[in-house]
Amino acid sequence: MPHLLVVDDEKNICTLVKKYAEFEGFTVTCAYDGMEAYQLCKENTFDLVIMDIMMPELDGFSAVAAIRKFSTVPVIMLSARGEEYDKIHGFELGIDDYVVKPFSPKELMMRVSAVLKRSNVSATNTSNDVYNYKSLSVDFDARTVSVDGVRLELSPKEYDLLFYLIRNRGKALSRDILLSEVWGYDYFGVDRTLDTHIKLLRRQLGNYANCIVTVRGVGYRFEEA
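and the corresponding structure tokens:
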């Protein structure tokens, strides 16, 4: 039974999320500030963390940065702010998803299940194959990406997105397909999650950024430029 850590200084939100999560069969522990979340993650093993941003003692961004020094636990970030800057900052820290308040508890649970599913698939991937293009090297089994011999530090979801694009290179992949296959849920309205990750990936890939091609009106394609 997956164990979730729900972190929010608003106790009514913790209570609401816990209620829905337990109904879905999850075990839930609650924390009410970033420092408490950090300590709990050091002392316990969780399958996923739902983390608010604006909290006393230690904000969500700082807590995730501290947790990432010793753990790769999947993180879904909650925020009352939906600015792209906040999303990009969260994804750069290695979070797996970003949900803006007010949110639908049902949708949040769908995202929790999707992130857990993707994490489990990644953990059990035994493909043991490598993709090389010029000085770009991608090891799917080891989950490493290198450019000019230098290993890139990607977030878990950036790895998943790049791997899916490369495995389907040459194909125009729609936004719906990418969100469904990489995130595991359908595209919701104005959510910019995919575009944000594409922007971060291109930045990381440097000279190979143009390998990720925007297909207008459709989505994206990976091609050997």
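(Above: one complete record from the training split.) The CA atoms of residues 39 and 67 lie 9 Å apart.
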